[in-house]
Amino acid sequence: MTETTSIPKEKIDLIKEKAKMSRLETIRMISMAKSGHYGSSFSSSEIFATLYYHVMNYDPENPRWKSRDRFVMGKGHSAVGVYSILADVGFFPKEELDTYTQLGSAFGDHPDMNKIKGIDFGSGSIGHGLSVGVGMSLGARLDNEDYRSFILMGDGELQEGQVWEAAMSAANFKLGNLVAIVDNNKVTVDGNTAELMGIEPIKDKWESFGWNVIEIDGHDVETLVDTFDNLPAADSDVPTAIICDTVAGKGVSFMEHGYEWHVANLGEDDIKRAIEEIEGGQ
């Protein structure tokens, strides 16, 4: 754990509590849908909370504010983990989450930018997010804006060729305002990432494409805060990739590291156990 951040302990504690909130609300919403993405949402909880409660500039009263930072989920199936945060910071009433996945609801398994305030881009097929981020960052350059584009991707997503085309483009266009965040939880829906199609060495690959690369513990809030606080300036020439070492199903012992919980449903006893473990966690 890093000790270099000057952020007050109260802010660090807030981010940790909001990460817990994201996990608890994920359980609640998936219990209504009877199926959902626990593992990949839990592995991103601290990343979500750090971005929305400390890093990004945005205005819930003006969701399309031109100068806002952008956030795109390549791994859009983890949207259930960010919906509660968007509601908590004021993009829409929390009560709307009670409609999750119901007929006519704006809130589906993947986010829809045309229906949900605070969502900057919709998702579906995995692998498009970084290309979208390249476009957003180029747009900022053309408009003389200094916002950043943050793109969250899964490690399995790096198996997609389009990711590396976008990575090459970002370096070519000198997009220092683009930040790729890799949630390296080491599992996919079909099994362990390394056994299906190995992606290592991740750091070396990003560096070979001309990126500034940082490897961190994706659950250590102090380290996340310090890393984002010390990003190169948005007007710099080199894009940054943050490789986050994470645990699928983080916070619930019987889910951790298991690809079986990438998408699943919890029974009543397991829901109770999972809630107790999350509430009792650090």
TrEMBL record:
Keywords, sorted A to Z: Thiamine pyrophosphate
Gene3D superfamilies: 3.40.50.970
Ranges where the Transketolase N-terminal domain occurs: 18-274
One Pfam assignment: Transketolase_N
InterPro entries (alphabetical): THDP-binding, Transketolase_N
Cofactor: thiamine diphosphate
Keyword Cytoplasm: no
Record keyword S-adenosyl-L-methionine present: no
Family per record: Belongs to the transketolase family.
Protein name stated in the entry: Transketolase
